Every structure is written in C-alpha cells, then in structure tokens.
Amino acid sequence: MLKEKPKEIIKEKIEEELKHLEVEIKNLIEQSKPITPDCTLDDIGRTEAMTEVMVKSKILEQAQLRYTQLKNALLRIDDEMFGICVECEEPIDIERIMVRPESIRCVKCAN
Ligand SMILES: [Zn+2]
After folding, report:
1. Distance from the CA of 106 to the center of ligand 1, in angstroms?
2. Stretch 54-74: mean pLDDT, rounded?
3. Which of 44, 57, 68, 91 is buried most, with the most CB atoms less than 10 Å from its CB?
4. How far is the CA of 66 from the centre of ligand 1 (A)?
5. DSSP readout, 12-70?
C-alpha cells in the first residue's frame, strides 16, 4: 500500500485529470457529430470534413478510454494492490504512478 502523502497527491492529480477529460470529451462529442450534408462544400471539402470527424472520433475514443482507466485507478487507490504490478507483483515506480496513475504494470512488464 502507498504511503498516505503520495496517495493524496495522486488522488488529487487523478481528480484534476478527470475534470479536464470531462471537458475535453464534451467538446470532442460536439466536434465529432456526423456532418450534415452541406451543399456549399465540394467533394474535396466534404472528404476533408469527414476525415476531420473521423480523427476527432478516434481522439474521443482514446479520451473516453483514459477516463475509464482513471476512474478505475481512483477506485483502486485505497486497495493495497494499488501501485503493485499485475504481472510481476513488484511495486511500480512512484514516478510512473505520478505520470500515469492508471498504470497497472511496471515499466519492465509494460514494455
Ligand atoms: Zn512488473
């Protein structure tokens, strides 16, 4: 189990990141809505608009995945297995947890 202090810091970090992601996801949903046929656009313009929507949906997908992972990390943070690698059961580097609190594997096992 993590010491109290870093745990609090990580908790705050996750909550901050979740708030940030919520805004981002809302914006991305707005931006990746299917485009309404626009007669002023030519074929190239339409293709570009569609590509743009596809790229945005991809980013949205990743943001939603990260959001879920961070939510899970927040649920697991009080668990004594938090910060322990699921593969080798060694403690994960605290620096790694700080950067990516959703990590469930140590650097060695993740690569
Ligand atoms: Zn490991």
Report:
1. 4
2. 96
3. 57
4. 21
5. HHHHHHHHHHHHHHHHHHHHTSPPPP-TTS-HHHHHHHHHHHHHHHHHHHHHHHHHHHH
Cα 90 to ligand 1 centroid, rounded to whole Å: 6
**What pLDDT shows up at residue 41?**
77
Tell me how far the alpha carbon of residue 92 lies from the centroid of ligand 1, in angstroms: 7
pLDDT band at residue 3 using 50, 70 and 90 as cut-offs: low
Q: What is the mean pLDDT of residues 33-39?
A: 70
Tokens of 64: 């939603």
Query: For residue 32, what pLDDT band results from cuts at 50, 70 and 90?
Result: confident
CA 67 to chain centre: 5
- The Cα–Cα gap between 31 and 2 comes to 40
For ligand 1, a single-atom ion, the residues with CB < 5 A are 85, 87-88, 106, 109
Would you call 92 exposed, middle or buried from its count of C-beta atoms within 10 A (0-12, 13-18, 19+)?
buried
